[in-house]
Amino acid sequence: MADLWQNAMDHAVALARTAGAVVREALQDERKVMMKSSSVDLVTQTDQKVEQLIIQSVKDKFPTHRFIGEESVAAGEACVLTDSPTWIIDPIDGTTNFVHGYPFVAISIGFAVNKQLEFGVVYSCVEDKMFTARRGKGAFCNGRPLQVSDQKEISQSIVATEFGSIRDPETVDKVLSSMRKILCIPVHGIRGAGTAAVNMCHVACGCVDAYYEIGIHVWDVAAAAVIVSEAGGVLMDVTGGQLDLMSRRVLAASSRSIGERISREIEAFAPVRDDAPPPQ
Ligand SMILES: O=P(O)(O)O[C@H]1[C@H](O)[C@@H](O)[C@H](O)[C@H](O)[C@@H]1O
Ligand SMILES: [Mg+2]
Ligand SMILES: [Mg+2]
């Protein structure tokens, strides 16, 4: 059968490139920063503009498709994944980086049908790296095939993670305790690009061996999940169980053994799910 969703993927790549140019341009100007859930959960007019640009263009081309977009959900839209073709959009992954001019900023576009991810596009627009993957057809960066690392020794691994934006002291203690335990394995190092999507693409490239984070959202990881698995990596929950896209927890690794080893050091907690009904 012809690849049913190739048109949609081609459109996603073109849109990510256009959006990336908008983001790069905005990096030249002063950026007006607004807060969402807290003073460390930021949004700018560029996040909102880019999300609208992507959604409007997809609506024009694929009028029956549905959306989960970070800034639409922030504005009150439901975050529900149905069986319908659904675009899962993070207009700027790494908004804090964008605000500060820290050079890892990505446009992330995932696409799911029947709740299965079909393709992912992550454009790291300052680096001009276009990461793409279609289910069953491999993962690529600027057209070059990607392969996760073949590292089997946890003590020779680099692990990526983030401090996240949940900052109550009990949660921060758990985040730091997990990092402490991983550092003391010891691993070669811990890194973090400031964007979940780019961290996951680094797993796909093989320059880090695993990435985990608690507190991410479905739009942070949907696109990059396809890229990691098509590069030969594995995705799981931070406990080592099955990945649940709405659970706000992810662990991506070059192999199941590396992932499970790291999961044993993580102090798991459960943020409010992305698909939880809004508080009354
Ligand atoms: O809000 P944006 O889209 O920039 O995404 C998030 C990042 O992807 C996380 O890894 C990161 O830890 C932060 O939670 C950040 O909010
Ligand atoms: Mg994000
Ligand atoms: Mg974002």
Automatic annotation (TrEMBL):
Co-factor requirement: Mg(2+)
Principal subcellular localisation of the protein: cytoplasm
Keywords, in A-Z order: Cytoplasm, Hydrolase, Lithium, Magnesium, Metal-binding
UniProt-annotated binding residues for Mg(2+) 1: E70, I92
CDD domains hit by this protein: IMPase
Known EC number: 3.1.3.25
Binding residues for Mg(2+) 2: D90, D93, D220
GO molecular function: inositol monophosphate 1-phosphatase activity; metal ion binding
InterPro entries: IMPase, Inositol_monoP_metal-BS, Inositol_monoPase_Li-sen, Inositol_monophosphatase-like, Inositol_monophosphatase_CS
Gene Ontology biological process terms, A to Z: inositol biosynthetic process; phosphatidylinositol phosphate biosynthetic process; signal transduction
PROSITE patterns, A to Z: IMP_1 (PS00629), IMP_2 (PS00630)
GO cellular component annotations of the record: cytoplasm
Intracellular or extracellular location(s): Cytoplasm
Known catalytic reactions: 1D-myo-inositol 5-phosphate + H2O = myo-inositol + phosphate; scyllo-inositol 1-phosphate + H2O = scyllo-inositol + phosphate; 1D-myo-inositol 2-phosphate + H2O = myo-inositol + phosphate; 1D-myo-inositol 1-phosphate + H2O = myo-inositol + phosphate
This protein's pathway: Polyol metabolism; myo-inositol biosynthesis; myo-inositol from D-glucose 6-phosphate: step 2/2
Similarity comment text for this entry: Belongs to the inositol monophosphatase superfamily.
Record text on subunit structure and interactions: Homodimer.
Protein name, per record: Inositol-1-monophosphatase
